[in-house]
Amino acid sequence: MTTTLQRVAAGDATAVQDCIDRYGGLVYTLARRMCPKGAEVDDAVQEVFIELWRKAERYDPNIAEESVFIAMIARRRLIDLQRRLARHAGAEDLPESLEATEPEPESGAELKDSAAVAERAFRELRPEQQKVLRLAVWDGLSHQRISELTGLPLGTVKTHARRGLHRLRELLQPSSRTSSAGGGA
Amino acid sequence: MSERIHNSERLEQLWADHAVFGLNPEEDREREALEATGGNRALADEFELAAAAVALVQARRRAEPLPAALRAKLEGGGRAWLATRAPQAQTAPQPRLRALPPVAPPAPSRSIALPWLAAAAAAVLAIAGWWPRTEPSEPSKVAVAPQPAEQRASLLAAGALRVDAQGTELAKGAGGDVVWDNRAQSGWMRLTDLPVNDPTVSQYQLWIFDESQEHPVDGGVFNVSAAGELLVPIDAKLKVGKPTLFAITLEKPGGVVVSDRQRIAWVAKPG
């Protein structure tokens, strides 16, 4: 089956529209979260999509889910933007995911799109791995700050992050994707 | 043997840190040094994908709808991209995700590039300073002809910037020009008589100085495999606002994070 990005790479005008429809909200949400102070969210989102059009031909569905690939391109671009401008000052002070305010994940029955693979994989991580990765990737906290907030030693924070990534990459492999749903970390 | 294992474990930790926390300049240099000794680079890409999956999951749980005005801008941008897009097969095949280069870390801002613009304006052949890049470029976009000529011509017809270029002491007699379309964020280098490089020893790397950015933008790594005239697509890694200088350096295979001042091969300075 041809993916949206493969159709974009082929110059299909409807695919460009589909890509915006399907992933515009994702990129916008990431940009709202990761944009540094002084950067325009709209400009950042447009930069990400320009990058997506240009990189579409590099997407290989055998290696990653389309939504994960798009999140990676968006994250790269937004990290570049962070480097160009001052880092978002508030993010380090107000981690939204440290406490029990984490939004409820959708139920299994609702997990239909390609992002569901990532959701299922993330749920299979150990709770401490989930927490460290969430604080680092979503809240943008350094390992030192995570250590302070959680009381975990610095080395343990890094170990949770590395092992969590390892487990995720295993679960995101094509062979794991097809079996999925279930199994503990 | 134990040192090898230690290096391998250390490199893996650095890749994980890079994907999740970002590396400081010292760690980044350590990563580069260890990568030069080997290691499975695919793992670095997979860590980055895994970190992106975390971001995806979190964003999905807090999804915000795309504002209508922004949607309209994106649709306009998409149409513009399609309009300027080359017919198929104008460039050499791009590597797929398996060969994705690692992204630069969200490291503390580096101030080492400050001298660049001033130095470039003063004397393009005596540029001083360091050239950080946003991400190591993928290797080897070898120029192909003739289709690129048509795309270059269409950019020119659409009013793209054209700047004459000249070789330095490193590439005496080389010339050509740069065609750059800011709206499409794309362009071509026309290289004449740039010396053939051995990609196992060194590769050419383009840098774009931008008035609006502190650091030069990485324009891609490429090879010159034959004498004469070649067209090479420009692959700017960041959005370019107003280019003030295009410069090609000769670097180690795969490109570099910083460049020394001695290896500038070709420059094109807008008037």
Radius of gyration of chain B: 20 Å
Instruction: Name the quaternary structure.
Output: heterodimer
Chain-averaged pLDDT of chain B:
74
Mean of pLDDT of chain A: 80
Strand order of the largest sheet of chain B: 5-4-7-8-1-2-3-6
Count of domain modules of chain B? 2
Fill in the CATH topology of the largest domain in chain A. Answer: Arc Repressor Mutant, subunit A
Q: Which two protein chains have the largest interface (Cβ within 8 Å of the partner's Cβ), and how many residues from each? A: A-B, 72 and 65 residues
Strand % of chain A is under 5%
3D shape of chain B? flat
What is the number of domains of chain A? 2
Number of strands of chain B: 8
Helix/sheet category of chain A:
mainly alpha
Q: How much strand of chain B?
A: 15-25%
The appropriate CATH architecture of the largest domain in chain A is Orthogonal Bundle
**How many β-strand stretches of chain A?**
0
Main sheet makeup of chain A: none
Helix content of chain A: 55-70%
Mind explaining what this structure looks like?
The complex is a heterodimer of chains A (about 180) and B (about 270). Chain A has helices at about 5-10, 15-35, 40-55, 65-85, 115-125, 125-140, 145-150, 155-170, 175-180. Chain A is an all-alpha fold. Chain A is flat and about 50 Å long. Residues about 85-100, about 105-110 and about 180-185 of chain A have low confidence and may be disordered. Chain A is about 65% helix and about 0% strand. In chain A, helix 2 (about 15-35) crosses helix 4, helix 6 (about 125-140) crosses helix 8 and helix 7 (about 145-150) crosses helix 8 (about 155-170). Chain A folds into two domains: about 1-90, Rna Polymerase Sigma Factor, Chain: A, CATH 1.10.1740.10; about 95-185, Arc Repressor Mutant, subunit A (Orthogonal Bundle), CATH 1.10.10.10. Chain B is flat and about 50 Å long. Chain B has about 270 residues and is of the alpha+beta class. Helix content of chain B is about 30%, strand content about 20%. In chain B, a hairpin with a 6-residue loop joins strand 4 and strand 5. Chain B folds into two domains: about 1-60; about 110-270, no CATH class.
